[in-house]
Design a protein that fits this description.
Shape: globular
CATH class of the largest domain: Alpha Beta
Order of helices and strands: HEHEHEHHHEEHEHEHEHEEHHEHH
CATH topology of the largest domain: D-Maltodextrin-Binding Protein, domain 2
Radius of gyration: 21 Å
Number of domains: 2
Structural class: alpha/beta
Oligomer: single chain
Mean pLDDT: 93
Strand order of the largest sheet: 2-1-3-10-4
Largest sheet: 5 strands, mixed
Low-confidence stretches: 12-22
CATH superfamily of the largest domain: Bacterial extracellular solute-binding protein, family 7
Strand content: 5-15%
Length: 371
């Protein structure tokens, strides 16, 4: 919290004088997102927009565009680089088809199989080599004219939705499961689970046809909007396929570097505030959604089978290692493993403390699963 307090003070001191300098927007930042306006993450970006406009004293005007308004989701990278829009939002692992290292930045499955958690991943980004490598990925490897800001932490994403309670990997491995494409699906297959990938809007129709028996999406705040509680009633919160999931905002590099230095700093610090904003609001939104699911929609919160964790983490290490033959992938992977070896012992014991606090309160009955 000290860092957050200092950040707020720095913003106030640094940008206080700017507020009197200008009233008309000199620059316009158009951000094509991959989000529906109903998404909690779109609402976080609306607060990012407000912060940039306020702290720039109106010198920067920000326009947010919902999913598909100007370009389609997988066109966002090129659209930002080419200047069709000068801003975008999606996930770096969506670029994994261009180069597999993309998955390591925004969705390293199973914490790489080394126990890396989302806060440690963010720490690697801002206190380690992460941001430098992330922008090298876009600028040097993919040859895109843009800068990436990791600002929308979405993990841990839930294991998913099922029709029944399951107690072992052997049971869930018999189910056809909707999983994200790419490396997460590879890990499920390595673990022995039959998976298929499809767009979000196709999940419920597929379930109603019996084409899939289970599915994952994101977390309670987004899953409730999708209508999953109307189809499935057993919700497994602990998932490893995207335990770390971080959305990025992209800005055209040429456009950004033409901004005055103080306005560049407005954007830099507003992005970091956005990160904190999402971490805090995500707890509230997901908790409220989960409470509604349980109390009003009959959802049962289930424990993910204990043997899922070692099975998936082993599969994660096997799948990720296949890509180490690429030098840049290996460079990023090695950097993350080193960070995991540094941070996992501390984070595991610290997170374990909070887990035991909550479990003790629930065991005593003073906190319940919203019942």
């Amino acid at each position: 919290m000290k860092k957050f307090a200092l950040l707020v003070v720095a913003l106030a001191l640094f940008f206080g004088p700017v507020a009197s300098k200008a009233s008309a927007a000199a620059y316009e930042l158009k951000i094509q997102t991959s989000l529906a306006t109903s998404s909690m993450y779109f609402k976080t970006l609306e607060r990012l927009k407000a912060n940039i406009e306020k702290l720039s004293a109106g010198q920067i005007k920000v326009e947010l565009y919902a999913d598909g308004a100007i370009v389609k989701n997988f066109e966002i990278f090129d659209a930002v680089s080419e200047g069709l829009v000068n801003g975008g939002m999606c996930w770096t692992h969506w670029a994994s088809g261009k180069h597999p290292a993309g998955t390591l930045f925004s969705a390293p499955i199973g914490g790489l199989g080394y126990g890396l958690d989302q806060m440690s991943q963010l720490s690697w980004m801002f206190e380690g080599e992460g941001l430098k490598l992330l922008n090298a990925y876009y600028q040097d490897i993919l040859k895109l004219d843009m800068i990436s800001f990791p600002v929308l932490p979405m993990g841990p994403e839930c294991f998913g939705w099922f029709h029944e309670k399951y107690t072992s990997v052997a049971q869930i491995n018999k189910l056809t499961f909707r999983a994200p494409p790419g490396v997460p699906s590879e890990a499920f297959k390595e673990m022995g689970m039959p998976v298929v990938s499809m767009a979000g809007g196709d999940i419920i129709p597929a379930a109603q046809r019996g084409a899939i028996q289970a599915a994952e999406w994101i977390a309670p705040g987004e899953d409730i909007v999708m209508g999953f509680p109307e189809v499935w009633k057993h919700y497994y919160l602990q998932g490893l396929h995207q335990a770390i999931s971080i959305g990025d905002v992209y800005i055209n590099k040429t456009w950004f570097e033409k901004l005055p230095k103080n306005l560049q700093e407005v954007i830099n610090l507003s992005m970091k505030v956005c990160l904190i904003d999402q971490l805090l609001s995500g707890i509230k939104v997901n908790s409220e959604a989960l409470e509604t699911m349980v109390r009003k929609q009959g959802v049962v919160i289930e424990e993910t089978p204990a043997d899922y964790y070692p099975a998936f983490m082993k599969a994660a290490r096997t799948v990720i290692a296949k890509y180490d033959k690429d030098p840049f992938f290996k460079k990023v992977h090695d950097s993350q493993i080193a960070w995991a070896k540094l941070t996992v012992p501390f984070e595991t014991r610290s997170n374990g403390l909070f887990y035991m606090m909550g479990k003790t309160a629930m065991d005593e009955g003073i906190i319940t699963d919203y019942k």
